[in-house]
Write a structure and sequence with these properties.
The structure holds two protein chains of two kinds. By secondary structure, chain A is mainly alpha-helical. Chain A contains 20 helices and no strands. Chain A has two domains: about 5-285, ABC transporter involved in vitamin B12 uptake, BtuC; about 325-440, no CATH class. Mean pLDDT of chain A is about 80; it is low at about 310-325. The chains are: A mainly alpha, B alpha/beta.
Chain lengths: ~450, ~350
């Protein structure tokens, strides 16, 4: 069962569609109210809520954390609805920016007390649309539909306070209250979407369709239709590009949105120009300049990179190589074969000097014992005294026990001092066996 | 009255100065809590250790805090990896204005000295995101490397406090013995000694050696104990890791990591990478996903749900989770987490 492009991209695409639906609409409000960064600000407040919840030991994906972030969003909505002044001496955007900065800074301070949350803040920026789960998408769809329905029900009021607050005041509407409801519903949507898609993606979903459609028409229903079409199209293109060009999905969709907006505005510029020829010329000039700039940067990059390479020639720390490369670095079987090939006492004694590993020394000595027992057992005695490995000592000692037919009381696990007596006995045995043997042979 | 206060003040200062003198401990600052823990083991009651990065934090990034500069300003010994992991450390040392702990001074320890590096890139180039030019810097994931780390720390402590040499060396030997026994089992360490076992394990010859050799007619492999024994049934098993934290761990226990969820930290993987990873996991029946707990836990669970995986979320360093109080309990958590996951996979199949 292979995974195909559909399995991977379908949830991401569905999530995009769900986002497009509500965000294209809310974006129009946001642009008309001139509160572009309110989404960043509310998202940050929601994140602050999650972070504070974390301080109380609630994990970011738990239900408790969700209510915390919703509570904080409500607080944010209240702040924003109160900060709309009748005489616009202080632009609301200033308050929004301030709230963003404060929420972000406080979140970092809070996170500092609860170390594990730092990654949560990083996550908010990029999001992880590729990993979105079906239950999350469905939950988001339900919440968005409820918010959408609420806005549809009271569409007259919401549109009026966004388009023409003066008229609303004149009619005696409670503008503050409706503002609060607007920001609250907006915050609920943002809390959901930022969690899955990340701030960057949510921002373009909100702003780009609104800008694009406002350039084309003033009718709300037409704006919505165009915004939805555009969002769907861009999601398809962006996700496909991300798949076929092997790029991270979220940032690719964001960039695609930007590109589409650029192309659209160029086309509109030409179509609406009084003198088409001049417009086309201007656009062509712009394109040529862009290409030229790109070329200069490209060449410049290569130029500097070329120079950097000589400077940054990095020396990695040399690893110490064992001096006895040949014998010590052979594989076990190769070594055994090598030892079996050796035919003379001298070859074996030479090999012995070249090997540092005690087990391999013992292998050579065993072969030596077969060819020349006197020298063999002599070297074995040396190794028995020298080696630190109890297992090997016990093997060597077993060989002596077998050869001599008796126990010398040697303990492979004891300290050298405790074995001095048995070692003397072993040496004695070697002398009597091989010196006498040699003597009788002559 | 003025004079009285003056006398009182001098007396107070003198009193505290002497008491400070009497109980002056070697001030040690380690970048990672794991190095700090090993320094505590070696330094014992002669040192006071502080660590900057906790076990559940990302060692690549550190939020600067004024306290760090204060710690470093009065530090006698500074311990870092010495590779390109804590890129923030040199700036911190500069800020502290403490010349004794600069790189190359006696008060500076690079714990990676002498560690055989893995994943050394053929071409040194940072364009691939988080490529470490000297090789993988997460050296402490192998207990064998922990012994080298301890040796380097011991040398550093002796440099700044020669009087304590015998004490530090005794503690070092105790540490190495404990690592060996917990890694290979007490019996095997008695039979073969730590250095021999370490060499065999480093060359990936340990298991073959133990399976071939016998002691009193019994195959040595039956004497294997500790972490090696626990992981023995799962050699050559395949798993997926969240990020490249585990190079030395998988090398020691001979595991096979077939892919990484997020090869470059902080940059989401492309759909193609994800597709390839999921396909490989399904094709080769790989389900275990090993992740350090400084990554987003939700993301790891999301991924696991998507591929029907079994997430193993563990701290990368000491103090990174409740109960992980020292290096030994840290390795315990890694090994037990993986064993449980592999067992779960077995029973579900």
């Amino acid at each position: 069962m292979q995974v195909s492009i559909v399995d991977i991209m379908l949830p991401a695409f569905a999530e995009c569609l769900v986002l497009v639906g509500i965000h294209s609409y809310l974006g129009i409000h946001v642009i008309k109210r001139k509160v572009i960064f309110v989404d960043l600000s509310l998202a940050q407040i929601a994140a602050l809520g999650t972070t504070v919840a974390f301080l109380f030991g609630l994990s970011p994906q738990s239900e408790g954390a969700y209510w915390f972030s919703l509570g904080f969003t409500m607080l944010g909505a209240a702040i924003f609805s109160l900060s709309r002044f009748k005489n616009e001496k202080i632009p609301q955007e200033a308050v929004i920016g301030l709230v963003y900065a404060l929420a972000a800074a406080i979140a970092i301070l809070v996170v500092d007390k609860a170390p594990h949350g730092a990654e949560h803040i990083k996550e908010i920026m990029t999001g992880s649309i590729l990993w979105v789960q079906w239950p999350t998408i469905i939950k988001a769809a339900i919440v968005y539909a409820l918010v959408g329905g609420f806005h549809f029900l009271f569409r007259d009021r919401f549109i009026l306070i966004s388009n023409n607050p003066e008229a609303a005041y004149a009619r005696g509407m409670n503008v503050r209250f409706w503002d609060f409801l607007f920001y609250l519903s907006f915050g609920i949507v943002i809390t959901h979407s930022v969690n899955t898609a990340g701030v960057l993606l949510v921002f373009v979903f909100l702003v780009v369709p609104a800008i694009a459609t406002m350039m084309i028409t003033d009718k709300l229903w037409l704006q919505l239709v165009i915004g939805w079409t555009m969002g769907t199209l861009v999601s398809v293109i962006g996700l496909a590009l991300s798949y076929y060009l092997d790029l991270p999905s979220g940032p690719t969709v964001v960039t695609t949105y930007g590109l589409v907006l650029l192309v659209l505005s160029l086309v509109l510029y030409i179509v609406r120009a009084e003198n088409r020829m001049i417009a086309v010329r201007n656009v062509a000039l712009g394109i040529v300049t862009t290409i030229l700039l790109a070329f200069i940067f490209y060449e410049g990059g290569h130029f500097f990179n070329h120079h950097d390479h000589t400077a940054a020639a990095v020396t990695t720390p040399q690893q110490t190589v064992n001096q006895h490369v040949d014998l010590d670095q052979m594989t076990d079987t190769a070594f055994t074969q090598f030892v079996q090939q050796l035919k003379t006492k001298k070859q074996l004694m030479d090999a012995l000097t070249q090997v540092s590993d005690d087990f391999r020394r013992w292998e050579i000595i065993q072969r030596l014992i077969q060819l020349a027992p006197a020298e063999g057992y002599h070297e074995a005695l040396h190794l028995l005294e020298a080696t630190q490995i109890p297992l090997l000592r016990s093997e060597i000692y077993d060989a002596f026990k077998q050869a001599a037919g008796r126990d010398f009381g040697y303990d492979p696990f004891a300290e050298a001092s405790e074995n001095s007596r048995s070692l003397r006995a072993l040496k004695q045995w070697w002398h009597t066996t091989f010196q006498r043997g040699n003597g009788s042979g002559e | 009255m003025k004079r009285f206060i003056y006398i009182l003040l001098t007396a107070w200062i003198a009193l505290h100065a002497t008491s400070l003198q009497a109980q002056h401990k070697i001030q040690v600052v380690a970048t990672l809590s794991t190095y700090g823990d090993i320094a505590k083991y070696i330094g014992g009651n002669r040192v006071e250790v502080r660590s900057i990065v906790k076990g559940n934090e990302d060692p690549h990034y550190v939020k600067p805090k004024p306290t760090y500069a204060v710690w470093l300003a009065k530090a006698d010994l500074f311990i870092e990896t010495g590779l390109d992991l804590e890129l923030w450390a040199p700036a911190l040392i500069d800020k502290s204005g403490n010349p004794r702990i600069r790189s190359g001074q006696p008060g500076y320890v690079a714990v990676a000295d002498g560690v055989p590096m893995l994943e050394v890139p053929a071409v040194a180039d940072r364009s691939e995101g988080d490529v470490h030019i000297y090789g993988n810097p997460h050296i402490h994931t192998s207990p064998l490397n922990a012994k080298i780390i301890a040796e380097n720390i011991t040398i550093g402590l002796i440099n700044v406090d020669p009087e304590g040499e015998a004490y530090y060396r005794a503690n070092l030997n105790r540490f190495k013995q404990e690592i060996d026994e917990r890694l290979f089992g007490k019996q095997l360490v008695q039979l073969l000694t730590g250095p021999v076992l370490t060499r065999l394990a480093r060359n990936h010859q340990l298991v073959t050696f133990l399976e071939q050799k016998t002691f009193h007619g019994k195959p040595l492999i039956q004497l294997l104990g500790g972490w090696m024994k626990k992981m023995y049934p799962y050699r050559h098993r395949k798993l997926v890791a969240y990020h490249k934290n585990w190079a030395y761990f998988k090398d020691l226990f001979e595991l096979e990591i077939i892919g990484y969820v997020e090869p470059k930290p902080g940059i989401p993987p492309s759909p193609r990478d994800v597709e390839e990873l999921i396909n490989r996991m399904r094709r080769e029946h790989v389900r275990v996903i090993l992740a350090a707990n400084y990554f987003s836990e939700r993301k790891v669970h999301d991924i696991a749900r998507k591929v029907d995986g079994i997430p193993v979320i563990v701290p990368l360093g000491v103090d990174g989770a409740p109960g992980v109080t020292d290096y030994f309990s840290l390795v315990d958590v890694w090994v037990n987490g993986l064993v449980t996951a592999f067992e779960q996979q077995k029973t579900e199949e």
